[in-house]
Amino acid sequence: MTLRLSPVKPGRGPAHAQIEASLERALDGGALATGDRLPAERDLAERFGVSRMTLRQALGALEQRGRLTRSKGRYGGTFVAAPKLELVGTSALSDQLRGLGVAAGARVLSAIERAADPDEELLGSRVLAIERVRLANGEPVALERGAYAADAFPGLLDEPLDGSLYEVIRRRYDEVPVRAVERLEPALARAGEAEALGIEPGAPVMLVERTAYSATGRPLERSRDIFRGDRTRIVWKSEILGNS
Pairing mode, if any, of strands 68-71 and 77-80? Predict the structure, then answer.
């Protein structure tokens, strides 16, 4: 399919916004596929009729949103990024990734038993604190920092922690998480978070704070997770209140 790009037209909004829209149409229409390399910046700037600075502003915005990826060096350039992983909430991440045809994994950063922090005391006086980088096809997509009720899950830290914790919990324990309350807000990656996720400090991320409960209503988990904004999209389905 031919890549057709129209020059920027006066009076139709900022030049960089027109370029973003034009490239997004190419992405959504199939003229550009995952892994495709875009023409050189000089060529693109000429085709749009703008300066390279204006072009870079548009490319940078698309990169931040996870549509493009850029690299330097002899084999560098601007490439079409892989589609974002679309998650329905963030619980049971391993199950969701497998449902998308993606290999799920985790890299354990720390796993200890300790006294509960003030915001974790609803779980009991002692918690199992587990910090992991969640992987999709080997690529970091989330930094997961969870606290679990120690008395509910004795021996959990002796289990393999590089897969689905919920699978281990369902297999070993009587009391398991069955519902969760999640609070989401946009954030910027701090230095340590960025290093763990393989992104630049200050990159857009999604902060998810989750409390999970058993069927009896007992709190079993408190988590504070960071999801890469360029690799994940979180979706909810809801009923329209008052609809008749």
Answer: antiparallel
Whole-angstrom distance, CA of residue 143 vs CA of residue 124: 24
Count of Cβ atoms closer than 10 Å to residue 209 Cβ: 14
pTM: 0.71
CA separation for the pair 142, 63 (Å, rounded)? 18
Give the amino acid at 116: A
Coil, strand, or helix at residue 217? Answer: coil
Rounded mean pLDDT of 2-9?
78
SS (H, E, C) 179-200: EEEEEEEEEECCHHHHHHHCCC
Residue 88, both tokens: 């329905």
Residue pLDDT, tens place only, 211-233:
999 999 999 999 999 998 888 88
Q: How far is CA 237 from CA 87, 88, 149, 225, 231, in A?
A: 11, 8, 30, 21, 20
Residue-level pLDDT at 77: 84
